[in-house]
Specification:
By secondary structure, this protein is α/β, with parallel strands linked by helices. It is built from twelve helices and 13 strands. Helix 6 links the parallel strand 10 and strand 11. The chain is globular.
Length: about 350
């Protein structure tokens, strides 16, 4: 358990150590007696088989199926006085629920529902999408001890595995227990899986040789997105490198132009749906997943220095609208990829998905 040395309590910041068998037996007796609580105040009723505890004994963090629960409100305490009444926000809970209940289920073809909903899985796009995935490696150190993946999800593409191929550990953090369970199946002991909040990372400073955060920051509440990226930078070791893949959405000049007719049709359809809903008396559907996209200027003003490079210039709606085999789709995407290679900063700023590249 050498990796314990990079962890810290997300509540107090104190060091953690493994629970001994004697401590576990004593704790389980207290659980049976109803004298143990989660830090959010709810009773804790499950036996603990493995876990970590702060060096002062104040907070205990269970390890379930090799997944370390380092979310503040999942800490275990043995007295009401230690209850912190701290829970994740409604927007984060929306993301957590989606990925626990839907996002990491697979269909008959083995595709995760997250990819089916949000990605272009057609054959015409596969080569281009893979080459975009491969780009990330160029901006990472090729070897190291700890590669942080925040939020890892279920590592839905095999392409993602290359980023940590020559690292000892891939430190996968996520709000979804289901996602981390999938990661553990794929990586085994190479994966250090931590259930935690990206805006309150339970790791010490300067401990990660690299990090990736792929298509996830925009699912964090808008006022906390810069905080999450600053946390990633805080964890980066000297000479470490990291990549955040973001989405400009309506701040992408090129996609605003090309998707204007599609967005116009969508706007009309939504207005018609609203009218029909009011007539029928049905309720508006709840948001499936929180999303907010900042512009480049916001990050430039609020983050440590970084470079912008192209990850993928075009969005999924663009590809599904314009890219088809009968319209020479593969050739168009190949031309686009070469353009991104020649003008990576311009394409990163004006296209859909930039890479924010950090180095310490």
């Amino acid at each position: 358990m050498e990796w314990i040395n990079i962890l810290k309590c997300p509540i107090t910041g104190k060091d953690l150590k493994a629970l001994s068998q004697e401590e576990i037996s004593f704790l389980n007796q207290k659980i049976a007696d109803g004298r143990v609580f989660q830090a959010d105040g709810n009773p804790f009723t499950e036996n603990i088989l493995q876990g970590l505890v702060t060096v002062d004994g104040a907070y205990i963090y269970p390890i379930i199926n090799d997944i370390i629960l380092l979310l503040r409100d999942l800490a275990v305490v043995d007295s009401k006085e230690k209850v912190i009444q701290d829970t994740i926000s409604a927007d984060k809970k929306l993301v957590q629920d989606f990925y626990n209940k839907r996002g990491w289920r697979t269909d008959e073809a083995g595709n995760y529902e997250d990819a089916v909903i949000f990605e272009d899985l057609r054959d015409v796009s596969k080569e281009y999408v893979k080459k975009c995935h491969d780009r990330v490696c160029r901006f990472l150190n090729p070897t190291g001890t700890y590669m942080l993946d925040a939020a890892s999800g279920a590592l839905q593409y095999d392409d993602y595995l290359q980023y940590s191929a020559n690292y000892k550990y891939r430190v996968c953090v996520d709000l979804s227990f289901q996602a981390l369970s999938e990661v553990k199946k794929k990586l085994g002991n190479k994966a250090l899986c931590v259930l935690c909040d990206m805006t309150k990372m339970p790791f010490k400073d300067d401990v990660m040789d690299g990090f990736v955060s792929l298509n996830t920051i925009y699912h964090i509440p808008k006022d906390e997105q810069a905080t999450a990226i600053k946390e990633l930078y805080r964890l980066l070791a000297k000479n470490g490198k990291g990549v955040v893949v973001y989405e400009w959405y309506k701040h992408s000049a090129w996609m605003n132009f090309w998707l204007l007719p599609f967005r116009g049709i969508l706007f009309i359809n939504n207005r018609i749906a609203d009218v029909l809903r009011k007539i029928s008396g049905s309720k508006k559907q709840h948001k499936m997943l929180y999303f907010y996209a900042h512009n480049y200027e916001y990050f430039k003003s609020n983050l440590p220095p970084f470079k912008v490079r192209a990850w993928r210039s075009v969005s999924v709606p663009f590809m599904k609208g314009y890219i088809h085999s009968w319209l020479f789709g593969k050739q168009v995407l190949n031309w686009l990829y070469n353009k991104e290679e020649k003008e990576p900063e311009k394409c990163g700023l004006k296209g859909e998905y930039p890479m924010l590249v950090f180095e310490k």
